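Because discrete structure vocabularies remain unfamiliar, it helps to consider an illustrative case, giving the amino acid sequence and backbone structure tokens:
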Amino acid sequence: MVPVGTDTKPPRPTGDDGEMVDAYHDGSRALQDRFDTRRLADRLQDMFRSKWTLEDVRPFIDAAPMFFLATADRAGHPQCSYKGGAPGFVQILDPMELCFPSYDGNGMFLSFGNVLENPHIQMLFIDFEQPNRIRVSGRATISDEPALVGRYPGALFVVHVAVDDVFPNCPRYIHRSNGHELSANVPDAAGAAPIAEWKCMPVFNEVLAADDPARA
């Protein structure tokens, strides 16, 4: 795991009356009590959760070519999606703030549609070569701000995340993978990327966006 820093950690959350806020809900507590892990869970909370910032995991995130994104709509119906790009496509803006691009996809906008209804997300970063993982929770917004979009040639828009929690996870069950080849579909420095083959199927031609290059 990445070493824990000591000087930049926000304090453990407190309520309006100054009392410490329990990081676990009743469901978590019920299982902790069933399996006698409440003391362990509290120790992990005290040692890691709400104490890390993005600066503590910067090398890990800067090198990440992918992550898994969890979202939910306003009714709580979840989505989990894979997001990939060239290493560095997730950019740390300050110790509790980051952004990443949305590239061309299938046009359904399941995850980012959820963000418009419910900004709470979690990002799961996994290193499959040297097993390690980091969870980042926060509140996401869709941004067309030129200064952000300009960081990502080929992006439709940028997702900005105000980070609430950076949480390192045990890598115990991560399977090793030695893959080093990035997807050929990641936009290049000029924003160019191959056309998705499935979009070239006749059944989709008439329903593609007017400016989609696959229409040609």
Observations:
- The first strand starts at residue 66 and ends at 72.
- The mean pLDDT is 88.
- Strands lie at 66-72, 78-84, 91-94, 97-102, 120-127, 132-143, 157-169.
